[in-house]
Every structure is written in structure tokens, then in C-alpha cells.
Design brief:
Keywords: Aminotransferase, Pyridoxal phosphate, Transferase. The chain is of the alpha/beta class. The protein has 2 domains: about 15-75 and about 360-455, Aspartate Aminotransferase, domain 1 (Alpha-Beta Complex), CATH 3.90.1150; about 80-355, Type I PLP-dependent aspartate aminotransferase-like (Major domain) (Aspartate Aminotransferase, domain 2). It has helices spanning about 15-20, 25, 35-40, 65-70, 80-90, 105-115, 130-145, 165-170, 175-180, 215-225, 250-260, 280-285, 310-320, 340-355, 360-375, 405-415, 440-450; strands spanning about 45-50, 55, 60-65, 120-125, 155-160, 190, 230-235, 265, 290-295, 305-310, 380-390, 390-395, 420, 420-425, 425-430. A 7-stranded mixed beta sheet has the order 4-10-9-8-7-5-6, sandwiched between helices. The two termini are about 30 Å apart.
Length: about 450
């Protein structure tokens, strides 16, 4: 089988144009979460994608080991989604979402309701995971106000948690690099991260650390439950480096929240629709939150979209306290909420998810993926490997002078060898599309095995 660097597509007449942007032309675009100076001195342009590959401007097929950004999990270039988008763009490119609707929004909401755990019944559409996080926080605060308990405003997140980049999500998030530039945002507290030395090189759910959930009791003791609105956690923290909850941890959080009348919010933007090998992290761990946030795979990354799914109790509280029936019960939303093209993409993506049994496919490949990734243990610089379902992280010992340099250099050398990997802080993160084959898993691990020891 050809390696990714050998797998070269026929030249495309547009490639030269994309590859030939001048340095001055590159300056107009302020790139997100990127070293703009380094990139614009050495651009890495992607001009196409299909299946498990990205196409570079120099005509190479680059093995995609992160499903884009965890969002193209059903594979790139799905014709079913492209055709649905095209049909919708011709028929209904936009529809105002305030006080008017279009059928696809209701169809997609019902599909999402059918897939999410029982008890999560009402779907509010957003345009991203970040918007979903902030929507969930506003929903939680408004819920308690409508219940006659307006003092319940405090939010509790978790160290190393990631809930997008808007003000609320950044506040409850716990990744230092995402917070330090912005000063005080929204008042919140944070539980400890669940990374423990005794869990290093765990395969799947680690054994130790359920006691960390009891820190929530300490925060209740500090603030009193009467002031706490919600606890917001990811079933598995992806962006911080695939941090898997210890056995029993999420169930314990649920118990404490129930005991003290605190809402539990699961951020399933990354874990939703199959990444763990189950439909959702909530499904895998047997814990149903009061609110779930979604995005990414809801459209397979083809069109920006997110969703917040709430319990019937939360929804009914808004409906029962809405005043005249023509007045918005929840004065919140976006110009592009339930955008028709996003809904068309979402319906096609849900067809793929269900008909191609994507969660089952991820679950079937997960044991092989786990075995191959853990074969990297013992390589120079590697201090931990963690995995769950079709997600894994390789944690590296920090560089003595620049702590985050090693992951960056590894990612750049992998790109040269025909593979895209996600690097962040001290980790290399892997989350390939669910359609990945064993040969491609072997390929990604072989490239990493070649590259990692060569880094200083």
C-alpha cells in the first residue's frame, strides 16, 4: 500500500493558484489558534479532501489523523451531504429563524432527539460548539431565575476543560493558554483535572480518581448549593489531550448534582455522534445530563452548526413562564440558528451516522487503534498515552527551554511525511475518521514511531 506521501492525486489547475499566494496576500487573514508569523513564512495549504485524506497544494494526499478538527468523523467529501447542500442552496438558501420556521429545522430536531439519551427532548440550534456552550450557560441561569431562585448563578467547570472560546465557555473552561490573555471574564470555579500519575498509560477508562468528583461537595460547602447553577464538564476532555474520566466519576458528579439541586451539563461537542464508540459519552458512561451541547459531527463538519439539547423539565419551565404566547420564552438566538443549509447537511449527516452505523464502526476499530497507539510506549520523550474509543493523546515531556516546542516540531515533520496531526500544549492528539482502515492506523503509528525519537 502506498504511503500518504506517495499517494499523489493528478494535478489540479487550481493548486498552483492556492500555493502561489504572496507573503503580502497572506497577511489579510488573521488565522485562529495559529502561529501566524510562522505559518505565513512557511504556508501549509489544504485545497481538497476525500475519505481519510486532505489534499495539499503540492498535490499530495495527507493522511488526516484528527478528522479535520474532530468534526469530519464520517469521512471527507461525502457526496450525500454535498448534494443535500446543493439542493437546499437552490431552493432555500436562508430563512429567518425568529417567529418563523422551515420544515428541515423541525425534522433535524426530531432526529437529534431520537438519538440522544431518553430525557433530553428539546433542541435549540446554534452555529458552533462555542455558541452551544454559552447558550447552555444562559439557559441554566434563566431556568433558575424562572424557578424563583435567581441567586443560583455560579458555574463550575473543570481544569483542562474546553467549552469553546466565547466569554462563558472560556470562563468555565480550564485551559490556561485560552484564558491568560483575557483577564477576568465570568465568575466560575473549577474542579481538578482527572489526570493522575497512577493512571499513566491507561487503556480506556482509568481505574483511579473517582474521589476527585467529591471536590464538588467542597465547592458546595464553600458557596452553598443555593448559589450554584450548573456543573459543566466534557465526558471526555479532547482539546486538553484526551483526558478520560476515571471509572465512576461522572456517575458521582450526577449524584452530587441531584443531591444539591444543581444542573449537570455535558459538553459533547467532540464526543457526540460516535467518537467514544457509543452514540454519545452520556450513553457510554450511563449518565444523562440535564443539558447536552453538540456541534462538529452534527453536519460532519460540512457547515457550521451546533445544538443544545435540554430536558423536558427545563423546556417546560420556560414554556410555563413565558407570558403571552407570542412573546419569546427564551430571548436568545442567532441570525443563523437552524440555517436551512446547515439543517440539510445535518439531516444528510444523520442519515450517514445511522445507516452506516458510524458509532458501531468506531467501536469496532477502537481496540485495534488502542493497541497500535500504545505500541509507541517507550519511545523517547513520551510520558503518557491515553485513549478512549477513536481518540488518543500522546503526552510528551516538555522541552527544557520551550515547553510546547516538541509537539509542534513533530507535527511539522509528520506533515512533511504526508500526515496531519493535531498538536496542543504537551500532546499529540489522534482522532481519525471512523472509516479509517487498519493499514491507515498502522501508517499513522509508523510515522509517529519514526518521527518522535528524532526530535530534540
Amino acid at each position: 500500500m502506498a504511503t500518504a506521501s506517495e499517494h499523489v492525486l493528478p494535478p489540479n489547475e487550481d493548486d498552483a493558484r492556492w500555493a502561489g499566494l504572496s507573503r503580502a496576500e497572506l497577511e489579510a487573514y488573521w488565522m485562529p489558534f495559529s502561529g501566524n508569523r510562522q505559518f505565513k513564512d512557511d504556508p501549509r495549504m489544504i485545497v481538497g479532501a476525500h475519505d481519510c485524506y486532505l489534499r495539499s497544494a503540492d498535490g499530495r494526499d495527507i493522511l488526516d489523523t484528527l478528522s479535520g478538527l474532530w468534526c469530519c468523523s464520517f469521512g471527507h467529501g461525502r457526496s450525500e451531504i454535498a448534494e443535500a447542500i446543493g439542493r437546499c442552496a437552490k431552493e432555500l438558501a436562508y430563512s429567518p429563524p425568529f417567529q418563523f420556521g422551515h420544515p428541515m429545522a423541525f425534522q433535524l430536531a426530531n432526529r437529534v432527539r431520537e438519538l440522544t439519551p431518553d430525557g433530553l427532548d428539546h433542541v435549540f440550534f446554534t452555529n458552533s460548539g462555542s455558541e452551544s456552550a454559552d447558550t447552555a450557560l444562559k439557559m441554566a441561569k434563566a431556568y433558575w431565575r424562572l424557578k424563583g431562585r435567581p441567586e443560583k448563578t455560579r458555574m463550575i467547570g473543570r481544569i483542562k476543560g474546553y467549552h469553546g472560546v466565547n466569554v462563558g465557555g472560556t470562563s468555565v473552561g480550564g485551559i490556561v493558554g485560552n484564558r491568560k490573555h483575557f483577564g477576568s471574564l465570568m465568575e466560575s470555579d473549577h474542579l481538578s483535572a482527572t489526570l493522575l500519575p497512577e493512571n499513566r498509560f491507561s487503556r480506556g477508562t482509568p481505574e483511579h480518581g473517582v474521589h476527585l468528583a467529591d471536590q464538588l461537595e467542597e465547592l458546595v460547602g464553600l458557596h452553598d448549593a443555593s448559589n450554584i447553577a450548573a456543573v459543566v464538564v466534557e465526558p471526555m476532555s479532547g482539546s486538553a489531550g484526551v483526558i478520560v474520566p476515571p471509572a465512576g466519576y461522572l456517575k458521582r458528579l450526577r449524584e452530587i448534582c441531584d443531591k444539591h439541586d444543581i444542573l449537570l451539563v455535558f459538553d459533547e461537542v467532540l464526543t457526540g455522534f460516535g467518537r467514544t464508540g457509543s452514540d454519545f459519552g452520556a450513553t457510554l458512561f450511563g449518565v444523562t445530563p440535564d443539558i447536552m451541547t453538540l456541534a462538529k459531527n452534527i453536519t460532519n463538519g460540512a457547515v457550521p452548526m451546533g445544538a443544545v439539547v435540554s430536558s423536558a423539565e427545563i423546556y417546560r419551565t420556560f414554556m410555563d413562564n413565558g407570558g403571552p404566547d407570542y412573546v419569546p420564552e427564551f430571548p436568545h438566538g442567532y441570525t443563523y440558528s437552524a440555517h436551512p443549509i446547515a439543517c440539510a447537511a445535518g439531516l444528510a449527516a444523520m442519515d450517514i451516522f445511522e445507516h452506516d452505523r458510524m458509532a458501531e464502526r468506531a467501536g469496532a476499530m477502537a481496540p485495534y487503534f488502542e493497541e497500535q497507539v500504545h505500541q509507541l510506549k517507550g519511545l523517547r520523550h513520551i510520558v503518557d498515552i491515553r485513549n478512549l474509543g477513536m481518540a488518543a493523546a500522546i503526552q510528551l515531556e516538555p522541552h527544557p527551554r520551550e515547553a510546547t516546542r516538541r509537539p509542534f516540531e513533530i507535527a511539522m515533520r509528520c506533515w512533511e511525511k504526508g500526515m496531519y496531526v493535531r498538536f496542543a500544549a504537551d500532546t499529540i492528539q489522534l482522532g481519525p475518521p471512523f472509516i479509517v482502515e487498519r493499514e491507515q492506523v498502522d501508517q499513522m503509528c509508523n510515522i509517529l514511531a519514526d518521527v518522535i525519537p528524532t526530535i530534540d
